[in-house]
Write a structure and sequence with these properties.
It contains no helices and 40 strands. By secondary structure, the protein is an all-beta fold. The strands form ten sheets. Strands 1-28-27-26 form a four-stranded antiparallel sheet, with no helix packed on it. Strands 2-3-4-5 form a four-stranded antiparallel sheet, with no helix packed on it.
Length: 416
Amino acid sequence: MRTVVAWQETPPEKDGVRNVCYDVCYKPDGTQLVAGVGNRVLVYDAVDATVPHHAQDSVYCVAYAHNGKRFASGGADNTVIIWTSKAEGILKYTHNDSIQCMAYNPVTQQLASGTASDVGLWSPEQKSVAKHKVSARICSMSWTADGALLALGCFDGSISIRDKAGLEKLKVETGDAPVWCLSWTLTDQQVLAVGCMDGTLKFITATGQPKGKDRDLGFDPLSLTYFSNGEYLAISGTDKTVQLYTRDGTFLCQIATRDCWVWCVRPRPKHNFVALGCEDGTIACYQMIFSTVHGLYHDRYAYRDQMTDVIIQHLITEQKVRIKCKDYVKKIAVYRDKLAVQLPNKIVIYELANPSDEYDMHYQSATKIQQKLDCNLLVVTSSHVILCQEKKLQLYAFEGAREREWVLESVIRYIK
């Protein structure tokens, strides 16, 4: 996978308010991007155009209703403003503290807003805002896909899981570190991805049980979001990057590197784009280009699936087998009874259990080359792998020794 910057902009400061982009959100049809930058709400055409609209004091959060009819902004002035999709302010309500985060219910169109002291629930049918006290500052929130549960991530390390009326059903203690970002899966499995300010990524079920082991990110996560129908997870943070993970937290690759903290990352619906909001006020949109990783030899075709699996298909019998590599699959090569899979830090060689059977589909791990090797092209033979990097060809034995190297005058485009 590779990424390219589709567009980016750093709006100038206005009225002396520090220019930080804390949050962005997309209209559900993907045509519009809303960003809170400094003391302004900026409404962008998702391709390149922009129309600025003013909001009082620093804007901390924005959220779009799932029906696409309205969006909301909130910030340091303790006020939530409801806007039409044409950026016309139609309603506002206040809390006693600054607005830290907001989220629209995907089913009922309720708007939840969180502060240091309470959570508010507003809906188009209500004339008032229902508010419920909380014991710690709310840092993040997320609704389940069916709109039945709302998770609140708090500064004291707890997660409050509430029903759509705002009543607490369960409280989960994750530790002492603030729960800075969280998101429910996009499926009905109701698993919560949680990013804590101790540099960990956790997964918790709706009943409060941990799912799998905690992942050490190596940085403090500031934002996380599922996209591509919940297959992937994008996480941004204090290391000034945006990183791509599988839905269960396996690191895949880096999406973007910036010069400052990346406060938020949001996927563009129906497209392989993500928008970023940065500490210096920059809004950037990146296109993610997922390349096909595959290999073919006679009647055996192998291809990457879900970025971490390899599927081998027999083209005659149409039988398929899946190999779960549990890591980012970079390259695949097939030759006779051999299958080579390049992962970030090694190349794994698989072979057929019964190579004399032309229909055998039982692959087993035979050996590994425990090296981080860069290549544009990969070929496997009976006892070697060949790596191509620009003008260079390298021949490695399965045991890991480099036996030959050729440097040509021109860039190599294809090998077989």
